[in-house]
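In this supplementary section we document a worked example of the pipeline. Step one takes a protein sequence of length 67 as its only input; no multiple sequence alignment statistics are reported here. Step two produces a three-dimensional model, which step three serialises into structure tokens for compact storage. The input and output of this example are shown verbatim.
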Amino acid sequence: MDNNAIEKHKFELLKLLYSTLDAKWSIIEEMNSKYPDCSKKSIERLFKEISVREKKDGDERVVYHAT
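The serialised model returned by step three reads:
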């Protein structure tokens, strides 16, 4: 398994963050099913690096935003 495979799909993870209100584990599962060459652990690590869960002005609920 390619340890850097997730880096190739970083943009896809960002798009997924903004297109869903799903829970973190659901987003990680979806990424893993689309890109099986990426391990769940690497997806979760990148997810934590590039996102924060918060409620910003105009948001109706707490959602993930890119950092």
